[in-house]
Specification:
This protein has 357 residues and is an alpha/beta fold. The protein has 2 domains: 157 residues, 3-Layer(aba) Sandwich (Rossmann fold), CATH 3.40.50.2000; 167 residues, 3-Layer(aba) Sandwich (Rossmann fold). A 7-stranded parallel sheet has the order 3-2-1-4-5-6-7, with helices on both faces. β2, α2 and β3 form a beta-alpha-beta unit. α3 packs across α4. The protein is elongated, with a radius of gyration of 21 Å. Cell wall formation. Catalyzes the transfer of a GlcNAc subunit on undecaprenyl-pyrophosphoryl-MurNAc-pentapeptide (lipid intermediate I) to form undecaprenyl-pyrophosphoryl-MurNAc-(pentapeptide)GlcNAc (lipid intermediate II).
Length: 357
């Protein structure tokens, strides 16, 4: 018998979904029945259904900061989404709603507020995204990943919790990871991740430096869908993947270093695993600049080196990797000195307090 019911929401990208999944086992241990509201065709639908969580779909419109003709029609989709969410919440009667942001979350948060259901939200990046900015007035509390984020949250609603880490990420096997890649153990391993869609600029630079890198390292390269290089399929010491799911914990365990974009969820997983990282954040041209802030925060804490896209030329990348190798011990020491309670426990605490008022 469940003590509480929580409706979770969030979608649009994997980053708005995977932290929710990290919370689910702990929520269930604390007596919660868990259900999910998402969009009709977002990435969250498949991910949530694959995890056997009851899923309700609503209408949703994208929130944009730029001009687009859809800006005239999408507000009506949001209004329809509020109506859809209200109907679901009326029937399900949850004790609390937990939002991870993304455009699908806004109608759910507003509907919960109208039904006087407490809402707890979580923001991964240093500055709140548009969805969480719009949701904040309707939330009881807004959990944040970075200490610097608290200054952006009004009305004393901000709570520093960090980022929830999926338990399975922490339980990978180094031996299995090396076996998957058919690597020998004589060289250290670099894992390269360019985000769920891959990154052409990172892929090109890694492959441009490949002969040099393979002298000292084995390379695991998650390059994104459609980005495999068929000429390198049999290259010794170099293993390409378009995308990985089940194997990811083992590949991360096998890695001595990680080169990656600077999405908050990913870099906190690397931190939890104590993996020295070289972060190449998305440029301001391609984003709102949140990855640059995330990367610089980790650099200032001593957890990472940072290389901006504008600096990404062959000699710079290789030299930065050598710098990462020479700083390995110092970076791991900085990570080990990090203090703080388990993020999942802190978030569950906030959720329980919001129910009890």
């Amino acid at each position: 018998m469940y003590k509480y019911k929580v409706i979770m929401t969030g979608g649009g990208t994997a980053g708005h979904v995977t932290p929710n999944l990290a919370l689910v086992p702990a929520l269930k241990e604390n007596g919660f029945e868990v259900k999910y509201i998402g969009s009709k065709d977002g990435i969250e639908k498949e991910i949530i259904k694959n995890n056997n969580i009851p899923y309700f779909q609503i209408s949703s419109g994208k929130l944009r900061r730029y001009f687009d003709l859809k800006n005239f029609s999408d507000p009506f989709k949001v209004l329809k989404g509020i109506k859809d969410a209200n109907k679901i919440l009326k029937k399900e009667k949850p004790d609390v709603v937990f939002s991870k942001g993304g455009f699908v979350a806004v109608p759910v948060v507003i509907a919960a507020h109208l039904r006087k259901i407490p809402v707890v939200a979580h923001e991964s990046d240093m500055t709140p995204g548009l969805a969480n900015k719009l949701s904040a007035p309707f939330c009881s509390k807004l959990c944040v990943t970075f200490r610097e984020s608290l200054k952006y949250i009004k009305d004393n609603k901000g709570v520093l919790t960090g980022s929830p880490i999926r338990t399975e990420i922490l339980n990978g096997s180094k031996e299995k990871g090396l076996e998957i890649c058919n690597f020998n153990k004589s060289k250290e391993v670099i894992l390269i991740m360019g985000g769920s869609l891959g990154s052409k600029i990172i892929n090109d630079e890694i492959r441009g430096n490949l002969e040099l890198l393979l002298k000292d390292f084995n390379i695991i390269h998650i390059c994104g869908k459609g980005n495999l290089d068929n000429n390198l399929l049999d290259k010794v010491g170099y293993k390409q993947f378009e995308y990985v799911s089940e194997e990811l914990p083992d590949l991360m365990s096998a890695a001595d270093y990680i080169i990656s974009r600077a999405g908050a969820n990913s870099i906190f997983e690397f931190l939890a695993l104590r993996k020295p990282m070289l972060l190449i954040p998305l440029s301001k041209k391609a984003s709102r600049g949140d990855q640059i802030l995330n990367a610089n925060s980790f650099k200032n804490e001593g957890y990472a080196l940072v290389l901006n896209e504008e600096e990404l030329i062959n000699s710079t990348l290789y030299n930065k990797i050598l710098e990462l190798k020479s700083n390995k011990k110092n970076i791991i020491n900085a990570m080990n000195n990090m203090n703080g309670k388990n993020s999942i426990d802190l978030i569950i605490e906030v959720i329980l307090k919001s129910i009890k008022g």
